[in-house]
Input
Amino acid sequence: MEAPVTHSHRLTRSTYDAVVVGGGHNGLVAATYLARAGLSVAVLERLDHTGGAAVSARAFPGSPVRLSRYSYLVSLMPEQLVADLGLDVRLESRTTASYTPYLPGTATGAGAGGEAGGLLVERPEGPATRASFAALTGSDDAYDAWVSFYAEVEELARAVAPTLLAPLPREDELAARVPEQIWRDVVLEPLGAAIDRRFRDDTVRGVVGTDALIGTFASLHDPSLVQNRCFLYHLIGNGTGEWRVPVGGMGAVTDALAAAATRAGAELVTGADVRRVVADGSRGAEVTWADADGTHTVAAGQVLSGVAPYVLERLLGGTPDEATKPEGSQLKINLLLDRLPRLRSGADPAVAFAGTLHLNETASHIERAYAEAAAGRVPTELPGEVYCHSLTDPSILGELAGSGAQTLTYFGLHTPASLFTAHPAATKALAVERALASLDQHLLEPIADCVARDGNGDPCIEAKIPQDVEADLAMPGGHIFHGDLDWPWAPQRAALDTPARAWGVDTGVESVLLCGSGARRGGAVSGLGGHNAAQAVLAAR
Ligand SMILES: Cc1cc2nc3c(=O)[nH]c(=O)nc-3n(C[C@H](O)[C@H](O)[C@H](O)COP(=O)(O)OP(=O)(O)OC[C@H]3O[C@@H](n4cnc5c(N)ncnc54)[C@H](O)[C@@H]3O)c2cc1C
Output
């Protein structure tokens, strides 16, 4: 067990070497590295707890279950970072990678005809995976194409992963280390082109493509390549791209980080809403925050911003252009079930729900849904995926472990914030209804029959649209990465002439650095933003 973390309501000094704005997981990582290097460090967090989007919560009154309320799987946090900080974090592999149920009449292989079926990808992949591809498509070609695509992607991942904790490499340095074809497919051309060329089956195309669209509103063919960047981040973690379940939920990761930060001597202040950062070039900054007692100011040699760049601009006294505000696009639903539902395909629910269960995520579904949402409508057949973390880690169920109860998380794509602006409550209800209907079409019993009741007798269902995420966490527009992801390397001609630029954490103001998701390479639960900002501070001393 970690030692309890000290969250204070006041600072002990009037000046710190470094003040971190925002106690998300990245802010905690930055604080720990700096405090360990001997700097005096304070973290100011507006909520009454640290962790930002990496937290666990008892979301349902009267229920002991502590579920990962926002983020839920970890891939991008380097093992080296976990070791460096001595974190007590356990990440558990899921036994199923993914399961994609399909309706009667949709398969073209042996699974064609009157039967419902499912495309199973085991972890590790074995004969059942190959057989499953053959049943869906009628030949071995699809699985052979899958194996060769992901082998190439792994070469790319193995080249990029070791660079993430170092100053930014340049694009051509990395390109030179990676086979030309996969570089072109993932980095140079819209990902949809490679997916169409390499895979013929609509379901397989969709399973590959969804990694490009988590929290990213784009077509697979978008010329901006924002979907390619999202895909890359989903496949490079620790050189394998495996997404694992944090034991104890995402809150356990944050608790370990907060404990490491306080052990190192950083002061964590919660309930401290930062209102203003006045930066004086290279000569430090003053940070003003408000709490229940009024407003306070502290001086900092260096400010590290764990909040989104769009939020920081306002704190620095600017007026951010509304047109540049990030926009989130996901629907997250947390459910507690009395039991897992049975599937029409006959698959064992403990296998099908153990990985990523894809719903309405064929390539055609995804593109249709994108077009509908871009035209301002909630997609009729909402694409999304569900996860049952408690199959991998029953500890989050508390005393319900062993009772048959399970958690279920739904992550929906292509529900941009703009869809909910006019009629938030009604549109949210419609989106939730469509998300649950996308699951029901594959079940022998409606999911509503399996949902547990909370202490008030209400169904244990909690839904978060982008507006909820913004209200809860101050992520602008509810964008889960604080803004669209950047490539994890420097453009060819970028100036890398200061530590801040070399580490991808520059804000244009010398005494203020980005240490959160908005830093280049910062997106997701990785600690990379925090690590890289801390290294830039130390390199400049
Ligand atoms: C629904 C959802 C699902 C996700 N799923 C995953 C997943 O499974 N895996 C994954 O890797 N990533 C996932 N992500 C993304 C990931 O959670 C984020 O990229 C990551 O948590 C960001 O961490 P951070 O520390 O950079 O910022 P944040 O978590 O945003 O933390 C910033 C902190 O700053 C505080 N703050 C804001 N304004 C102020 C202010 N004015 N003064 C003081 N404090 C302030 C906030 O309260 C917050 O605590 C998901 C995100 C969401 C929302």
Remarks:
- The chain has a mean pLDDT of 96.
- Residues 102-139+327-478 form one domain.
